[in-house]
Specification:
Elements (H helix, E strand, L loop, with lengths): L17 E4 L6 H13 L4 E3 L17 H14 L2 E5 L3 H9 L4 E4 L1 H4 L2 H11 L5 E5 L6 H13 L5 E5 L16 H10 L5 E3 L1 H5 L5 H10 L4 E5 L18 H8 L4 H40 L7 H18 L3 H31 L1
Parallel strand pairs: 1-2, 1-8, 2-3, 3-4, 4-5, 5-6, 6-7, 7-8
Helix pairs in contact: 1-2, 3-5, 5-6, 11-13, 12-13
The structure holds phosphoenolpyruvate (PEP) and manganese (II) ion.
Length: about 350
């Protein structure tokens, strides 16, 4: 039996519970206006970051404590529940002081056992709801460990948030959801509600719909979505936030997002193609230098044995990557032909200039 995520059944199982709000609290006006519109759109529980752990120093790191005061005031006026990310024990103390209804551990914090332990100590004795995002690395034991540390400090209202993992493969999504592994984790923790955070998985609002649909197919208990009253000017995560009014379109509206997803895929392919052209130009510079070297050492441009051994290795590599060895062979024979023609042309030109 999945417990209600919040005291008083604010997010009961049944209807799809949604927590939404801006990535960061930026100003009193921004948080109030966003919360007011979220409320008009039927959202009862708001998320917003007062402290933002940024990858590189120098970026906007959140407004800090004052943000919680602004959010608390807006929550009291509008009758909304609110929560923020806590990255340090001090943040947890401040969140308790401003009577946050929930807090969450961000991906960078879940992966840091001593910090989780210290935060759990501060929260011990409160009945706060704590949501635990998956760590950045696909290490499910670390995720489990963070939950256990909270439980050992008597926290019982614990939920999970799948926000995707950094993986070497890269790809269209900002973070790989690793859906299957997530399902395993879910079934190992049947007593914990699990939300899906499509915003941090996709990194791109055009892809939200696809992620939400998959989360629903996989029976996630709710969604954790970034929403800002004016996403284009957001100080953090601008590309993935949506206006409050778009939340219901995302869930129930006619899907124009299929087209948007296609555009996003095409942009990605265009980028890969342009990288390929850049790599080809680097290759061409190298083969020109090789041509010059062969000429000074009186070697013929075509070295058949070298070509056949290259093709042999590239075919094997193609197999390892799961792409067609025939395609790779055809491609490299074309590339090689062009380099050879170029080397022969240059050699002829040099011979001409020798005679002049
Ligand atoms: C966030 O929710 O704004 C956030 C920083 O998320 P994550 O920890 O998933 O990167
Ligand atoms: Mn964010």
């Amino acid at each position: 039996m999945i417990p209600s995520l919040f005291p008083g059944g604010i997010l009961p199982k049944g209807d799809l519970p949604i927590i939404a709000g801006p990535c960061s609290i930026e100003s009193q006006g921004q948080i109030y206006e966003t919360m007011r519109r979220l409320k008009e759109c039927g959202i009862g529980v708001v998320r917003a970051g007062a402290w933002k752990p940024r990858t590189r120093p120098g970026a906007f790191e959140g407004v800090g404590e004052i943000g919680l005061r602004w959010m608390r005031e807006a929550a009291d006026q509008l009758g909304l529940k609110v929560g923020t990310e806590v990255c340090l024990p001090e943040h947890a103390r401040i969140a308790l002081r401003y009577k946050c209804d929930f807090v969450w551990l961000g991906a960078r914090t879940t992966g840091s056992p001593f910090v989780v332990e210290e935060i759990a100590k501060v929260l011990d004795g409160s009945d706060l709801t704590v949501l635990v995002k998956n760590p950045i690395a696909p290490d499910f034991q670390l995720w489990q460990g963070a939950v256990e540390r909270l439980q050992r400090h008597h926290l019982i209202r614990i939920g999970l948030i799948l926000r995707g993992f950094t993986t070497v493969a890269g790809g269209l999504l900002r973070n790989d959801p690793l859906w299957e592994a997530g399902d395993d984790f879910k079934s190992h923790n049947p007593e914990l509600p699990i939300l899906c955070d499509p915003s941090h998985i996709s990194g791109d609002r055009r892809l939200l719909r696809e992620i939400v649909e998959e989360a629903l197919r996989r029976d996630y208990d709710g969604l954790f979505i970034e929403s800002h009253y004016h996403p284009e000017t957001a100080l953090t995560d601008a590309a993935q936030q949506i206006i409050p009014e778009e939340i219901s379109t995302l869930l129930h509206g006619e899907s124009t997002h299929g087209d948007c997803a296609l555009t996003a895929y095409r942009e990605q392919v265009d980028k890969v193609d342009s990288d390929l052209i850049h790599l080809l130009s680097m290759r061409s510079e190298l083969t020109t230098e090789i041509g010059a070297w062969k000429a000074t050492h009186h070697l013929t441009p075509l070295q058949s044995a070298r070509l056949e051994s290259m093709i042999y290795h590239y075919r094997r590599q193609a197999e390892l990557y799961g792409i067609s060895p025939d395609m790779v062979e055809d491609l490299f024979r074309i590339i090689h032909d062009y380099s050879l023609t170029d080397q022969i042309k240059r050699l002829k030109n040099e011979n001409h200039s020798d005679k002049d």
